[in-house]
Amino acid sequence: MSRALHDLLGEIERDRALLEPGRLRERGAALDRLETLRIGAPAAEAGLRDRIEALCAALEAVDGELHRSIRQDIRRGAGAQALLGHARAAGPDRDAAGAAAAGDSYDHLDTLVSGVLQIEAPVGRLAGLAREMVFYQPTPARHLFDLLARTGLGADDVLIDLGSGLGQVALIAAICSGARCIGIEWEASYVQSARRCAQALHLDRVSFVQGDARTADLSAGTVFYLYTPFEGAMLREVLDRLKAEASTRELRICTLGPCTATVAREPWLQPAGAWEPHRPAVFRNG
Ligand SMILES: C[S@@+](CC[C@H](N)C(=O)[O-])C[C@H]1O[C@@H](n2cnc3c(N)ncnc32)[C@H](O)[C@@H]1O
């Protein structure tokens, strides 16, 4: 048992490519394997445990340096190239058919996004969600990058994330595109965390509004995003508001998760291509 652990550890230690900044995916996989080794390492084998800790620290330091350098690029207005370059080079976790994995699992791209944004944990008590409001869960980064590639947001676009949580979608979209981005979120402490992140990264095209998507101002939006933030009558009410907005201009509605099936039944919307609930879907009016 111990011999096999030593061999596996030695294999990772010898793989110098893991220290290259661009090897996000491989480093993520190695850190996962090291976590398994850490669990399996006998308590008596202090030397083995020390080697695992040292290797984890060395790999995490490479990630930390990469995140620091991308944050610097973002502050000087060159974040899109830096972040998208690394995200594209690493690519998402893929399914057996070679497509980006469906569903709400997370991968090394989420490590990249959370390391770059460094959104602070919300402070204070949460207001609590009313019935039909869905609790916070961030959009997996591979779906977010996929959506950005498919929507090609431009300087004339205003993206509104309905139920923006800690703000990751609006923040990444503002970094990676020329669009103005707005997050609308019920929980005030999430909004505060998102605003602090935007400030720390000097992002001036993104803003966050504390409020209820049923009553917030939607008049600026050209692209709306819903990662199933609410359901039932609440979703119905917001879709009716979006329909009213759509009678005045061209809109795109992007969705992820169970709300996609409801949105797909809206007669005023057409899907831009085939859709499935576990991947981002894009709909257009008119
Ligand atoms: C599934 S999370 C999505 C978070 C974010 N859009 C993302 O993709 O990373 C849903 C969010 O919607 C918020 N929410 C639920 N109902 C809302 C409402 N009526 N108005 C505004 N925000 C709401 C929740 O507090 C939660 O943060």
Strand content of the residues, in percent?
Answer: 5-15%
Instruction: Write down the overall geometry.
Output: elongated
The averaged pLDDT comes out at 95
Q: Detail the poorly predicted runs.
A: none
What hetero molecules are bound to the protein chains?
S-adenosylmethionine
**Whole-Å distance between the termini?**
64 Å
What is the CATH architecture term of the largest domain?
3-Layer(aba) Sandwich
Which class best fits the helix and strand makeup? Answer: alpha/beta
Report the CATH C-level class of the largest domain.
Alpha Beta
Q: Strand count, sense and closure of the main sheet?
A: 7 strands, mixed
Percent helix, as a range, is 40-55%
What is the domain tally? 2
- Report the order of strands and helices: HHHHHHEHEHEEHEHEE
Strand ordering within the main sheet: 3-2-1-4-5-7-6
Radius of gyration: 21 Å
Number of strands: 7
Query: Could you state the CATH homologous superfamily of the largest domain?
Result: Vaccinia Virus protein VP39
Instruction: Write the CATH fold name of the largest domain.
Output: Rossmann fold
